[in-house]
Amino acid sequence: MGFPTDLTYDSIVSRITPRVGLGPLVTAGAMATAVLGLVATALPAAAEPTPPSGGAAGAAGRVTGQVIGGGYANRSSTPFFVQLDLGLNLSGTDLIGSCGATMITPYWAVTAAHCLKPTSDSRLSLAQSSAWVNPIRAGVGRRYGIAAVAIHPKWEPASSANDIALVRLKSQSPVPGALPLLTDGSRPARGERLEVYGLGRTVADDELSFSDRLMGAVVTDLSGPSQLARCGSYSTAEYRPSQSLCAGVPVGGIDSCQGDSGGPLVARIAGRPTLVGIVSGGNGCALANYPGIYTRVSRYAGWVKARLSPAKVDVTLGCATGCRVSTSRPVVVRVHNSGWADGSWAVDADPGILTVAPAARGTIAGWQTRKVVLQPTGARKGWTTVKLRGSGGGTKVVRILVN
Ligand code: ARG
């Protein structure tokens, strides 16, 4: 994927920030309310830098009744947040070439597919900083090269459907705090409290308002679990509940925005932070009736898991090498897949001597175990060789005495 260097800032914005629909322009009034509402204040107020113009007070002041404090995200409770540097080297627009991302294992981060569109894999890197400062702007923290990128095969750039991608780091991130993802296909309840984090714009129509420090906002689910639910004033083509979540506040004023794409939408499930959404799109930012649209992570859990770790299928005999079996003493073979992806296995035995029941080969899903039985046919006795094969687990040849 090449990227023309003569694009202006605005055309880059529109390339990496698909907008859903053509809504009203953000007005000056809306601008002040477009600041992300902030979650937790970890530093004492005196140590805090001044929030960006129209800061938390603006948002909190306008959006009455919201449980929004003033301050930056608590970095120690958000170690899963990382920033994807698209390596575009755009002069003066240093942060437009970046997106949020979430560590879901020490090697893998999840982000939005549209983030990866204007760049090429070789330019990408991931920045992680335990400090609060933006690791890309400040050049602090750690940098990771990207070993592999997986964009969802059904991602549609025009409609932003299936806006999810995975990046694999070249080396393991030592920072603990990978975020579990919602895998059971469920959706947040309408009104459920959610958190969104990012280093993107703090003012909707100000391209230079990217945050220097990680911001967090408390938003609520505005659509609920129904497959027929609507999201604000979006059309049914713009908001597809089967693959998206709708989160914000109905009156606007609190939202994610450009530069936050790819970053996490987090739910506390049984007190545990869980990744439920990925910042994907929206009509403007923080407008009334146009909440943020997020990729619904649980819908893609199968696709994600299949790429996280390849199958490792171990096929092991229930007795030591050189074991004896007889018609009254069959032997059990255990097939176990200790990876996420589906794997295959096979038990090759001499059919004149041993039958393998109920099947001699098959596929096995991630983290599953199954057992098959080697049963002497009784037709012949003596030593025989059995081959045990599992994808990612290699082949073992064992000798068995059948008597
Ligand atoms: N697509 C944007 C990006 O690339 C994120 C837009 C989020 N918009 C919103 N209203 N929540 O950064």
Question: Strands, helices and their partners?
Answer:
Elements: H1 9-16, H2 28-33, H3 56-62, E1 81-85, E2 98-103, E3 108-111, E4 125-128, H4 135-138, E5 142-151, E6 165-169, E7 193-198, E8 215-221, E9 244-248, E10 264-269, E11 272-281, E12 292-296, H5 301-308, E13 313-317, E14 324-325, E15 331-337, E16 343-348, E17 354-357, E18 361-364, E19 369-376, E20 382-390, E21 394-402
Parallel strand pairs: 14-21
Antiparallel strand pairs: 1-2, 1-4, 2-3, 3-6, 4-5, 5-6, 7-8, 7-10, 8-9, 9-12, 10-11, 11-12, 13-15, 15-19, 16-18, 16-20, 17-19, 20-21
Residues 16-17, 200, 255-261, 279, 281-282, 285, 292 line the site of arginine.
Structure write-up:
There is one protein chain. The chain is mainly beta. The chain folds into two domains: 5-306, Thrombin, subunit H (Beta Barrel); 313-402, Immunoglobulins (Immunoglobulin-like), CATH 2.60.40. Helix content is 8%, strand content 32%. It has five helices and 21 strands. The protein has helices spanning 9-16, 28-33, 56-62, 135-138, 301-308, and strands at 81-85, 98-103, 108-111, 125-128, 142-151, 165-169, 193-198, 215-221, 244-248, 264-269, 272-281, 292-296, 313-317, 324-325, 331-337, 343-348, 354-357, 361-364, 369-376, 382-390, 394-402. The strands form four sheets. Strands 1-2-3-6-5-4 form a six-stranded antiparallel barrel. Strand 20 and strand 21 (394-402) form a beta hairpin. The chain is elongated and about 80 Å long. It starts with 8 loop residues before the first helix and ends with a strand. Residues 1-71 have low confidence and may be disordered. It binds arginine.
